[in-house]
Amino acid sequence: MLTAGPTYEPIDPVRFIGNHSTGKMGYALAQEFADAGFEVTLVSGPTNLSIEHPAVQVVRVQTAQEMYEAAAAVASQADIWVFAAAVADYRPGTVATEKIKKRDDGSDETLVLELVKNIDIAATLGQTKRPEQFSVGFALETQDELRHAQDKLRRKNFDLVVLNSLRDAGAGFRHDTNKITLVDANGATAFELKPKAAVAHDIVSAIVARLQPHVA
Question: Which of 199, 197, 118, 114 is nearest to 163 (CA)?
Answer without folding.
Answer: 199
